[in-house]
Design goal:
Elements: H1 2-22, H2 26-39, H3 44-56, H4 60-73, H5 78-90, H6 97-113, H7 122-128, H8 132-151, E1 169-175, H9 182-187, H10 190-193, E2 199-205, H11 213-221, E3 224-227, H12 233-242, E4 247-250, H13 260-264, E5 270-273, E6 288-291, E7 307-310, E8 341-344, H14 353-365, E9 370-374, H15 378-390, E10 398-401, H16 406-413, E11 418-420, H17 429-436, E12 441-444, H18 453-460, E13 467-468, H19 471-483, H20 485-500, H21 507-526
Parallel strand pairs: 1-2, 1-4, 2-3, 4-5, 5-6, 6-7, 8-9, 8-11, 9-10, 11-12, 12-13
Helix pairs in contact: 1-2, 1-3, 2-3, 3-4, 3-5, 4-5, 5-6, 6-8, 14-19
Length: about 525
């Protein structure tokens, strides 16, 4: 009888903890899971839930420990494996990650082959693996799941889209990130430059208002800004439909606070994926993806559910930025006055052991050089130092930078000599920042959209010599540029000249191309050619 009471109590604590976690009350949820663990230390769910909530609270080390405990009970749990994998990546705790990665891919393929939930979200898939087929299969499963969920609605909701002749084309942008966010830093000037003789511009927000310059500018520059926060899916979709939006541009896909269910209800006749989700959403409700021929060559079309809508030479636009005028010098950051400064300001979860190993070899081959790196948590910093020492590199050659307000962050980039890109998840906005500040970026031309973002930017800047085909080429190029000052200086001059040509920051030119694409697909759709 006592055992039954304990089992009932454990279930109650787990249920209450999950309810609190869903409400964002993470610390209260953690107390419930701790109580469940006291009753049953061998509970898979209690260990798993503790790992999840502690990870959200920012304690990566303890999160990893709880996920490991959960895996001793259920070694093939995809959810626990993916939780362990992503928390370990954040803190750069790499031991065993290659095996976990392989195991995850195997188990997810097995689940998909048998019609089961892959238990990995599309965004997690693309940042973990560059297996494009697996990325697409995972995304397609979630597409079906969204439709199944919506099919339970009563009554079923359908929208009848008819062409409104003799009026401007209505463009709607949908996002939770109309705030200080990497996507808005790139895109914020676009809304103002739309041709109001041909287009009306709407923004639909389901994210919080941070009161930033970015939020205020989008609100001011759109013909209509609609706050959809605290509304149900159907209500959001109805508002978009009633505004008679012709082309709805989704800036999120399956990232962050995305609401793909709204798009699945088809509130607009033409729906496009752009910028926020760097890959295929696998959905049947996003018709196009705005991209370029470097990110997604024509041969990749079969691995995308969306049709390619090319904006060449580059998918990305760089809005105007505010750079701090405070004078920066190397001494302020502990950087050597004369030594060569390599840098990587990508988030720590983008760093992989294989690429870090290349970076360490580069440092050993370039005397007096340092690696200036961003680490957003102390544990990642400690683990990177530990790994550097294992590979024979003194911790004195690892210089860490803390997060700064964006204008200050940009100003300090001028102190670096050369940026070293990450691999599976390469730089997008980060690479743009480097190039804006005249810092060349060496990248590896990868296998999927996410691993080709830097390549797209560099090709647009007419710097193909910074693209490499393999890790050997990557290492050799970095060493050569750091060792040959004449070649490095010529590269800097070429970068500056390319910037003068205004390739990535010509907002008017970019918006013109964007509008031609919108007009083309609008015509195709309403003439029945789509």
């Amino acid at each position: 009888m006592n055992g039954n009471i304990e089992t009932i109590a454990e279930k109650l604590f787990l249920g209450q903890g999950n309810l609190l976690a869903g409400q964002g009350k993470l610390e209260e949820a953690m107390i419930c899971f701790e109580k469940a663990l006291l009753l049953n230390p061998a509970s898979f769910l209690a260990n798993f839930c503790m790992g999840k909530v502690i990870g959200l609270l920012g304690d990566g080390k303890r999160a990893v420990e709880y996920y490991q405990a959960a895996l001793t009970i259920k070694p093939n749990s995809i959810q626990a494996l993916r939780g362990l994998y992503h928390e370990a990546r954040k803190i750069c705790q790499w031991e065993g990650l290659v095996d976990i990665d392989s195991k995850l891919s195997f188990l997810i393929k097995e689940a998909l082959d048998n019609g089961r939930e892959p238990e990995e979200m599309p965004y997690e898939s693309i940042i973990r693996t560059d297996d494009k087929e697996l990325n697409l299969r995972t995304a397609r499963w979630w597409n079906r799941y969204i439709h199944q969920k919506l099919s339970l609605m009563s009554p079923a909701l359908t929208f009848n889209h008819q062409r409104q002749k003799g009026r401007k084309i209505k463009i709607g942008y949908l996002s939770a990130d109309f705030r200080e966010h990497p996507v808005m830093r790139l895109l914020v000037d676009v809304f103002l430059f739309h041709n109001r003789k041909k287009f009306e511009v709407y923004a639909y927000s389901f994210g919080y208002n941070d009161g930033s310059y970015y939020r205020k500018k989008v609100e001011a520059d759109c013909d209509k800004f609609v706050d959809l926060v605290n509304m149900e899916v159907v209500e959001r979709a109805k508002i978009i439909y009633e505004d008679k939006i012709d082309i709805l541009v989704d800036l999120m896909g399956f990232t962050g606070d995305a609401k793909p269910e709204v798009l699945a209800l088809r509130p607009a006749p033409i729906q496009i994926s752009y910028l926020g989700f760097p890959g295929s959403t696998g959905t049947d409700f996003l018709d196009y993806i705005l991209t370029d021929k470097i990110l997604t060559p024509v041969i990749d079309q079969k691995l995308y559910s969306e049709k390619f809508l090319y904006i060449n030479p580059c998918y990305q636009i760089n809005s105007q930025i505010n750079i701090s005028k405070k004078k920066k010098n190397r001494k302020d950051f502990g950087l050597p006055e004369k030594g060569f400064v390599f840098c990587s300001f990508n988030a720590t979860h983008k760093i992989e052991p294989v690429m870090f190993g290349v970076w360490m070899r580069i440092l050993k081959r370039v005397p007096g050089s340092v690696l200036w790196v961003y680490a957003d948590n102390e544990l990642a910093k400690k683990n990177l130092i530990k790994e550097a020492k294992i590979q024979g590199v003194s911790e004195k050659r690892m210089i860490f930078v803390k997060k700064k307000p964006y204008p200050e962050y940009l100003a300090q980039l001028k102190l670096a000599d050369l940026a070293l890109d990450t691999r599976i998840y390469c730089g997008g906005a980060t690479t743009s920042d480097m190039l804006r500040m005249n810092v060349p970026v060496i990248t590896l031309y990868g296998k999927h959209y996410l691993s080709r973002m830097s390549s797209s930017l560099l090709m647009a800047m007419k710097l193909p010599e910074l693209l490499t085909k393999n890790l050997f080429e990557y290492e050799e190029l970095a060493v050569e540029l750091a060792s040959n000052s004449k070649k490095w200086k010529l590269l800097i001059e070429k970068l500056k000249q390319s910037k003068n040509d205004n390739v990535l920051s010509n907002i008017e030119l970019f918006v013109g191309k964007l509008e031609k694409s919108y007009e083309k697909i609008y015509k195709y759709h309403f003439e029945g050619k789509n």
